[in-house]
TrEMBL record:
Gene3D superfamilies: 3.40.50.11350. This is L-Fucosyltransferase. InterPro entries: Glyco_trans_11. Its main location: Golgi. GO terms for cellular component: Golgi cisterna membrane. It comes from Dreissena polymorpha.
Amino acid sequence: MARLCSAKRRTVCLGVLLLSILQMLVYFMSTRHIGNVHMQSGIHSTRYGDHLLLRNGTLSIAIYGRLGNQMFGYASILGLAYTMNFSNIVIDGGGDLLSSFQLSNNMVSFSPIPLNAKHVEEMRCCAFDERLTMFSNKEDINVVGYLLSWKYFYNIEKHIRKEFTFVTSILSKAKQIKLDIASMFNDTSLFKNRTYIGVHIRRGDFLLESKIKFGHYPVSKDYIIHAIQLCTKMFGEDIIFVFCSDDIRWVKRNFSNFTDKWKMAFVEDNPAAVDMAVLSLCDHTIVTTGSYGWWAAWLAGGKTIISKQQARNGSYLSTQFAYPDYFYPDWIIIE
Ligand SMILES: *[C@@H]1O[C@H](CO)[C@@H](O)[C@H](O)[C@H]1NC(C)=O
Ligand SMILES: *[C@@H]1O[C@H](CO)[C@@H](O)[C@H](O)[C@H]1NC(C)=O
Ligand SMILES: *[C@@H]1O[C@H](CO)[C@@H](O)[C@H](O)[C@H]1NC(C)=O
Ligand SMILES: *[C@@H]1O[C@H](CO)[C@@H](O)[C@H](O)[C@H]1NC(C)=O
Ligand SMILES: *[C@@H]1O[C@H](CO)[C@@H](O)[C@H](O)[C@H]1NC(C)=O
Ligand SMILES: *[C@@H]1O[C@H](CO)[C@@H](O)[C@H](O)[C@H]1NC(C)=O
Ligand SMILES: CC(=O)N[C@H]1CO[C@H](CO)[C@@H](O)[C@@H]1O
């Protein structure tokens, strides 16, 4: 993969050089200077024809929402670009990605959507839409949607894993938190013997009336207890459960009377990216709903236990899911 990427990079450099020469040509041949690069690239194909001035199109997406949704947008648009051999990718938004990860793919530029791009909307947020894999890489396409499916980036999983390397400050904070948890449970072996299960419980905004109406679903306490019990069956009793949540007070109130039975640590008061890094350092993951937990599980690797119920029955959101496209193939889905 590393070799493939560096080869791509050289291609891109060559492409950028060629484009610059073409832009200079257009500049000198036109009577007045057109300052906008996108307008210039629009001119190439119409005035001079594709056979003369071969241009590569741009695949773009505007990213909305917070970290989890931004990660889906980034991973999926890259996956689509590699599938269709687009060498220019534009992402509008995605600020949390830039502050959290050591992104290195130089086909990507974080800038506004090209003005001339053709907008194509995904069919459903949480299902794979095959139409989005069939564009010509000579066109400028703006994909509109959330692209919440692993099928969009399955082709470049290793590359995405490298892209989602946390920045050093976040990673070292997370490692310190894990060390503190280890010492709290006298794990002097420094994680080698014990099994760490990251547990992410999404509540927060999913409790808002508008979000519930839309179909968001904060899972039940019973689901989490079932998932913990399943873990003790799968991995033995010497497990440390590391809880992260956007409502850690609720989690503590509802689970701290289990601390005699299970080893539990409640992670508090960190930025979302630090919590995600802590979860990514665990061996296995229990997640509830929402894209944030989805990515925490994906980053951790290992086994993932996830709630079967991702949206409220009968809601609009529930019609947006194709579950085989959303759940990773080897995830354990329970109620
Ligand atoms: C377009 O991309 C191809 C590879 O997909 C590359 O060989 C070519 O040089 C690029 N052309 C321009 C004008 O960037
Ligand atoms: C993309 O490029 C590869 C290698 O150059 C080629 O095998 C493949 O057919 C291309 N795919 C598309 C959709 O152009
Ligand atoms: C850790 O070890 C100390 C000292 O040996 C002991 O007092 C404490 O109870 C132990 N804690 C746990 C969680 O086992
Ligand atoms: C961890 O494993 C090592 C080697 O297998 C052993 O020496 C050590 O006592 C173990 N530590 C704990 C806390 O079980
Ligand atoms: C913890 O408290 C809840 C009620 O708040 C109760 O249903 C549950 O059985 C308790 N668990 C334990 C282990 O005591
Ligand atoms: C939603 O529907 C599914 C399948 O029809 C069912 O198994 C599940 O219990 C329902 N969930 C709720 C919270 O009613
Ligand atoms: C399911 C459950 O036990 N929920 C409780 C969690 O904690 C809050 C606050 O103490 C209670 O109000 C809930 O009933």
